[in-house]
Each structure stands twice: as C-alpha cells, then as structure tokens.
Amino acid sequence: MATVNLTGRQRAGWGVANLVVIVLALIPVLWLVSLSFKTPTAVLDPSYWPSQWTWGNFSGILESSQFLRPLVNSIGIGLISTFISVVLASMAAYAIARLEFPGKSVLVGLALLIAMFPLIALVTPMFTIERALGLFNTWFGLIIPYVAFGLPLGIYTLSAFFREIPWELEKAAKMDGATPFQAFTKVIAPLAAPGMVTTAILVFLACWNDFLLAISFTSTITSRTAPAAMEYFSGGSVFTTPTGPIAAAAVVITIPIIVFVLFFQRRIVAGLTSGAVKG
Amino acid sequence: MAPITLDHITKRYPDGAVAVSDFNLEIADGEFVILVGPSGCGKSTTLNMIAGLEDITSGELLINGSVVNNKSPKDRDIAMVFQSYALYPHMTVRENMGFALKLAKQPKDVINQKVEEAARILDLTQHLDRKPANLSGGQRQRVAMGRAIVRDPSVFLMDEPLSNLDAKLRVQMRTQVSRIQRRLGTTTVYVTHDQTEAMTLGDRVAVLRSGLLQQVGSPAELYHRPDNLFVAGFIGSPSMNFLPGTVENEKLRTSLGDFVITDRLRRELEGAKTGRDVIVGIRPENFEDAALVPAEARARGITFRVTIDVLESMGSDVFVYFTQDRGTQTVNAAELDELAADAGTADTGVSADVVTARLDAATRVTEGAVAELWADGDTIHVFDPQTGRNLSVAAAAGTPVPPVPQTPPINNAGGSLD
C-alpha cells in the first residue's frame, strides 16, 4: 500500500480530527459502562464516573433468568439464522456470479428490494401471519424473518467474493475430475471463506442487534432475545427505573460482539486468491 | 494415449454467433497438433469443446474411437494446462499436483510417488511444500504442467500455456514442453496465437480464421505451400510481403519488376479464370542484395533499385525496409486487413506499403541510400485477389517440400529436463 508522507502540521491536523471522532463515539459507551457500575441511588447523580463502584447490577441480571434465558435465545437464534443465511446465500450467490439463467436480473432486483423494504411496515402483517401459523413466540418465529432479511445482504456480499475467484480454477477442478459439488466444496468455498466469514459477521450482527422484530414476535422469555428482554427489566420498586441493570445488560451483550469482530477480523484476509493466476 | 477425431464440429452460441464452423481434423495417437490463429478465431473454443468445458452444437468428437460429446470432462481422461495456470492458491504445490489423484481416490503413497516423479522431471522438488503465491511465473507454469503430467492422461490440452511468461523464459519452456511431450508420447493439442510457437513445436499445425479451418499441415508445408492469402501472411516471421500484380504478355508485372511466368503457373492462371489482376506474395527471406547473388541465379528472379528506409542488423541477418506504392488496384483485402489488425500494424500506423526484406549479413546496403536488390522468382506466391486462393501452390503440387529456413537462433540455454 502506498504511504502518504505528511508534514508535521498535517499529521497534527489528522490526529486532532481522529481524536474528536473517537471521543464523540466513545462518550456514550463509557457513560453506559459508568452507569452499569453505579448503585441504584447514584444513577441520577451528575458525576460522570461512579463515586462508589459496584458489581451489583451485573450480579443482579446474571442471577435472574429474566436476562440469562434471553441471552441464550439471542445466541441460539443468531447462530442458527447466520448458519442458514450463509449456506443459502453462498449457493445463490454462486449461481448469480457464475451462471447465466433466465430471470437472473429479476432475482437480484428482488433481493435488493427486500433489503430496501422498511421493516416497520412489515411488522404488523408478519405478526398476523406468525400468529396464524403458530410461529409467534417461538425461535423459528424470529429465525425465519432473520434469514429472509439476512439473505439479500449475504447474496450481495458473497457474489462479489465469488466474482473475484477466477473461473479457470473451477474449470481446472473439473478437468482434474471433480464433480461440480466437489469443485465448489474443495476449491471455490475455501477461497471464498473470507467472504463467508464477513457475511456471517454481518448477518449475526444484524440478528444480535435486532429489537423491532424481537419485541414484536415474542411474549415470554422462552423466545425473547436479550435486547427485547432488557425492555422488561423492573426496578427495585415501581417508582425506580431499572437504569443500572439495563446499562449492565447492554455492556454484557456488547462484549461478545467486540470479541467476535476482533477475532474474525484477522481472518478477513484480502488477497487470498493471489498466486492463483499470473500475478 | 489416444487418437482424437473432430468430425464436422460446429459451435454456435445461443445468440447465433458461430465460433467454430464445420471443423474436421484427425489427430493421430501421440501426435503434437497446434491450433493457431489470431484472437477470436475459435481455437480456444475448439480446445474447450475437446476438453468438455463447452458443449458441441453439432458434429462428433471421438477420443480413442468412442464418441465423447456428452461425457463430462472428468470422464474423458484429459489433462489441461491453462493460460493463467489456474493453480489452487490454498493448496501447496504437492497438493495442487496430487489433487486429481486424490479425487480419483488413489492411495496416498501412490500419489506421493507420482507427484515426486513429476516434480523431479520438472525440477520442482524443492518447491513441493510452497504455495503458488510464493512461486515465480516460470515455476507456476511448471506446476501447471506437473498437474497435467501426474495424471498420465490420454490427451494433453494446452491453452496458450506460455503466453504469460517473458520472452526468454518462453523460449526455454517451449523446448521443455516439446521434450516432455516427446518423452511421454501423449497426444497433445496446443493452442497458441504465436506462429513461432506453432512452427517450432508442432508435428502438424492447423490454422484457423473466423471459426474456419484454413489449412492443416506440417510447419514446412504451411510455410512453403500456404493454401491462401491468410495462411501465407500468418505463417512466417517477419510476414510475407504482398504486392499487387498484373498478368501481361507472359510476364507477371509488379511495381518491383516483371517476373517470368513458368508454364505450370500459366496453366493455373488460365484455369482459375481470375482475370489479369493477382496478388503477389514474396517472403522477406526471398530477397537478397543483388551484389551477393551469383550471376547464374540472377536470371531466376528480378533485380530492382529502391531507397532503403530503415536497416536493422541482427548480426546473422540484415533486415531492410523500403516503401512500395501498392497503387490503387482494388483487391478483396478482407484477409489482408485481418492480418494487419493481428500484426498490430493497423494500430501503429505503419503503412501497409512497407516491404520487408531479409538480406545476408555480408550486404553493404546502407540506410537512406539506394540499393539494388534481387527477388527470387522461383519462390514467389501468386494469389487470387477475390478468393485469396494460392494459385502457385496448386501449380507446384506434387513436388517435395523443402525445409523451413531457420530464423536467427534465440537463446535456447537452460531448460534442463532429465
């Protein structure tokens, strides 16, 4: 990569600009962390950092099934939705990237249309459908819409990755005696792995962060996900708002995301295909 | 090892474009056949049809005596070397070369033994555990060759395997490809757009143009007896010079001078009923500095005086370029235009009026001066301007074909094989 030589003045200017952006982004996060460590009575105190640090909020939510069960739901629903989305999306994306078939542009257009659709407009009809099908308040009641909305994203990301893989590799695999399925699993899929991981992260994040569908299609903790469950936290009495526990829960559900992205970031290695063809 | 028969093979795409039209070719067991032609002539399509990567619209393809039109590539026992090499980037050299055997469920020790044997032939032993990304262009090319050799297939297909290498490496690898093919004795079909590769490698060369097979023959046949204007212009480097000519009073009149018409040529011209206008083709090597031509040979050809525009001394030979007005004669020049486009002269703006001559190194001609040159009348070709057919070849039918004169020797060093 080309490095740009900056003068001292430019360097300082960029440094200040970066600092401003980072501070702006981090203030709410740190505030949330700070709140999660405050005692219930100190929540309204105006100091930014707690005067008295406590693990009470964390131990409170982690001891109650009102949060633990939704956390398990979130992980389960997120992983299943991600898995189904990536498997289906990789097949669809492969077809879109490699094959010429009638209706291809219509299919791509439809996928884009689904991605564009405002979710809020779909919630009410989907609610009625789910009630009628008996999917309301079940894991699959959330997995199905998550897969549906994860697919367009997955198809778009993956077809871009598949297009990068030289077609001759597949021809070579065919000449080497591979069936189309073997060519896909042994040659194309390993090369598209970074794309699949990227897609998986994006779909998982979308599922993990969803609040709208989760709050609409669930009614008990058997299927409610963590973000929706936080809405139902109760305070010490009717007159106290559960600010501390909510902040603690927010911190808890953010940690896996940070770990997830940091871990997989290393795997998203661009240029894995270098050396396949003359470089 | 297997013979291949292409019987009236045609490839028509759904949009109606015809890539290959009525292609007939018999390839003998163990033969090295080259498909050559400018880009878009259908040579790669033909290769892909033999490989099974593209469907055959009509006609029959036989490998080892059985029709394989509807067989998938893996059932045809064919190995292919791609222009881009198409090495699997996530596998080591060893895994790349052994992939086909692994898919065929061969035992591990057999795979290892075969891979190591091929690696030894190709001098890749010390690179077996590296990934393609860490190899040089020449090494990657050898891995691609190795992947084909390891399988011990009945047919090798090569799709411009050397065109991604630099000039020097290409010459070395060319020798090596030829040696490997001779050693293994495997039937090979090799596609290239480089006529030098075609001439040096092949037992037989098939020249294609716009999906039509123009001529099949040994390199010497194509060189000395091109069937038509296109083959004449495509084969040979530098390429043949074309001048308009007129048949008049027992003479073949060109802007360089009047050639004597032999009896056989006259009969051909009469039979062809082409009228008086023809195209005369003279290869650069059929010119000579008139001062160096022995007196008894002079009568065979014509001598003429021209101003030398450019002189290039190659050491062993001297190339001179001079301008000849082609006049305003209207000829069916589609083939000539296509040749010019292929040679790139249309893009570089070099006038088609430039004539190239290859003279002996002993010549005294100098750039910018008037020189007296001689053109050999025995070796000229006469073409029908309408059909492009070579009239002089038909006239010479039945006489033995002389060998191709060697182009200046190129560095053939390196390329150790055994």
Summarize the structure.
The complex is a heterodimer of chains A (279) and B (418). Chain A is mostly helical and 279 residues long.
Beta-strand residue fraction of chain A? under 5%
* Most strands sheet of chain B: 6 strands, mixed
Main sheet strand line-up of chain B: 6-7-8-3-9-10
* Class by alpha and beta content of chain B: alpha+beta
Structural class of the helices, strands and pairings of chain A? mainly alpha
- Helical content of chain B, roughly? 25-40%
- Taken from the alpha-carbon principal axes, the silhouette of chain A is globular
Tell me the distance between the termini of chain B: 22 Å
Question: Percent range for helical residues of chain A?
Answer: over 70%
Rg for CA atoms of chain B: 24 Å
Largest interface: A-B, 25 and 32 residues
Beta strand count of chain B: 21
Uncertain runs of chain B: 346-350, 408-418
Shape descriptor of chain B reads: globular
- As residue ranges, the low-confidence spans of chain A are 269-279
For the termini of chain A, the CA-CA separation is: 16 Å
Strand count of chain A: 0
* Radius of gyration of chain A, taken over Cα atoms and rounded to an integer in Å: 23 Å
User: Overall pLDDT of chain A, averaged?
Assistant: 85
Element order, helices and strands of chain A? HHHHHHHHHHH
